[in-house]
Amino acid sequence: xxxxxxxxxxxxxxxxxxxxxxxxxxxxxxxxxxxxxxxxxxxxxxxxxxxxxxxxxxxxxxxxxxxxxxxxxxxxxxxxxxxxxxxxxxxxxxxxxxxxxxxxxxxxxxxxxxxxxxxxxxxxxxxxxxxxxxxxxxxxxxxxxxxxxxxxxxxxxxxxxxxxxxxxxxxxxxxxxxxxxxxxxxxxxxxxxxxxxxxxxxxxxxxxxxxxxxxxxxxxxxxxxxxxx
Length: 229
Description:
The protein is mainly alpha-helical. Helices cover 70% and strands 0% of the residues. The chain has one domain: Urease accessory protein UreF (Orthogonal Bundle), CATH 1.10.4190. It contains eleven helices and no strands. Helix 4 crosses helix 10.
């Protein structure tokens, strides 16, 4: 991937609909769980330990699968992602973001793998992200890192909008969390490589924490929200 392609994929201004999702922050704010920059840092740490290994490994696996020459049963891998997201509302949010990213990527980086993935239905966001990274010309490490970048960036952007926090202070929080995220990339890529080599999505990480799943369900039942999730 060229530097500019990498920056474009990491940019929230790429029209993929990510701006409509808070990553659970809106529901946390509504319940007083996130009020300050320190609360946000704690929230991000939990997300990195819970969902972080999953989204990073799935994105890396999507990248490796799209780069291969063998036919891919995308539905099987997508089903494995669903199995790692207990909340129906969180699954829907992931599919909505994945569908939006795929629609954009097919215009920006057209590739046969993306067309095949699109025929699998409404694939999950990290799986799509990995396939898009391949189409854009990079590898599994970049895919895993980008998945974690989006996990952090969406939450931080939402916190600024919802709470009016100092954007510079929030950027510092994200930078600190990003250092933790970078250390998680190698393990995620190793897991993805093993899963793809064995053609067994069950080997992907299955970490998680219950609070984000509960918050997703509560958010879906809230009548008036600023974010879709």
